[in-house]
Amino acid sequence: MVQGIINIGSNSIRLAIYKIDDSQLTVLLNKKHSSSLASYIKKEKMLQAGIDKTCQAISSFKTLLETFHVTNISAFATTALRNISNSAMVITQIMQKTGVSVTVLSGTEETALDLFGATYAMQNQNGLLLDIGGASTELVLYENGRIVNSVNLSIGSLNAYEQYVQYLLPNKKEQKMIKNAVLVELAQITDFAPRPQTFICGMGGLIRATGRINISLFNLSMNTAEIKVSNMKKMIKLLENDEENELLSSETLKVLLKTVPGRIETIVPGLIILHTLSKYFKNERIVVSKSGIREGYLYKNILTVKKQTAQTISPIEAKNESNYAAS
């Protein structure tokens, strides 16, 4: 079975094509449109330009899927469509213009799929899950693979950039403003207190991009899945904008273009958020998960349903289906 999954997020719209054999996933293709949909939201409504951009991205993905003869397509959206008042209109336009039906996940559904997707292959079933999106940051405390508590901070890599950064990369003053904004939100959380040194699992495109910079700058193995907090601080310093000169150094530009060409504006604000959270929770490292919400959605909403359907087929129906497939 081959399955296409489209994920509409605040920072980007992504397509992943998976080959599925006995519940084992193999990624055949990953594509991304850097949509920055959060910047198209005004007064809690998505502007028509943002809707058009979303439809264009999905149409291009659908054409690609048709080229590879992939007929199983599922699409879902998170904060990008959940937190707007004209969500129903956006979904209707997407369906009319692309033929793709989009499911908008609730915050609870998103959290559960994030956790399942990020940790299903990990041995450690206790910890703190971090996902830094474009418009928000999700924190999930879990024990024995189950959610104990979760919160969403209203600061993400994209809205932090738009609110606090004047040029391409933040200078020291702007970095401090982003850090303080995170700390202000954390101070308002009274019932979320993971123990110091709790295992931290980072997921999502921003944290995976940070992992690539970490590998590149410190000459680490390509399989390195750990980011030290001390390395985060060094990365922020290296990618810091000069107070008096908004131009990037050639070395900084080279690093960004090599590792995160689609995240040049948002990577440092996201890195500051990640570093601030790691220090706040008194941790010295995070482990980067290569899987996430798309894999969680695939396992929970497609493979589980497919398995349940197969279990409910009677022996006669199964025989008929087998004969039909062989004919």
UniProtKB/TrEMBL annotation:
Pfam families: Ppx-GppA. InterPro entries: ATPase_NBD, GppA/Ppx_hydrolase, Ppx_GppA_N. It comes from the Bacteria. One of its GO terms (molecular function) is pyrophosphatase activity. Residues 17-303 form the Ppx/GppA phosphatase N-terminal domain. SUPFAM superfamilies: Actin-like ATPase domain. Belongs to the GppA/Ppx family. This is Exopolyphosphatase / guanosine-5'-triphosphate,3'-diphosphate pyrophosphatase. It comes from Propionispira arboris.
